[in-house]
Amino acid sequence: MQLESNLWGLNEEKSKKYNVAYNTSTDKRVYNSKEYHAWSYMLRLVYEDNERFRQKRKGRDITICNEWLDFANFNEWFGENYYTVGNETMDLCRNLLNQDNNEFAPEECVFVPRRIMQLITPKNLSKSGLPRGVGYRKLSNTYYSTCYIQKDGKPTTIRHSGFKTAEEAFAQYKKDKEDYIKSVAKEYASKIPRNVYRALMRFEVRM
Length: 207
Prior knowledge:
The chain is an alpha+beta fold. The chain contains six helices and seven strands, in the order ααβαβββαβββαα.
């Protein structure tokens, strides 16, 4: 879905996208820009009412600050904070600096390479009810941990088994995943802002 072109130049008194978002800029040259598409996707993530985006929200009450409901303000922040890492796709992340944050706001958001975004975004919990990264072997009545990483550019699996409880297996998964996140952060150290690097180094994998 794209925002309609007739939203350009809107003010707060006129009709709004999702009844909240508008644009006070009259510069139509950015209509197909990465700034506009990032703003549009942010709106969809918060306000779109379909299964795909409900799953992405994972039951969280995600919001957008009033300032960013106007594209003109988001566009200005974007220009001051966007950076590139080679040819990698860059994603807007709201909860790296503060993992408990659920609001898209200028003081909370950063851009990260998609590889990092995918690394820190938790997968949906399995239907088994076990913690992320944990499996169960019925035959031995034990639990195991599984952490998927990239080593020398190739997919690699780190697996530990023989745990008596799911909590013990998750603790091992947590250590393996956090160690890997730190190693990726060091790999990107000269390419990403220092606040992004520091946040990755202290990132906590949660159950």
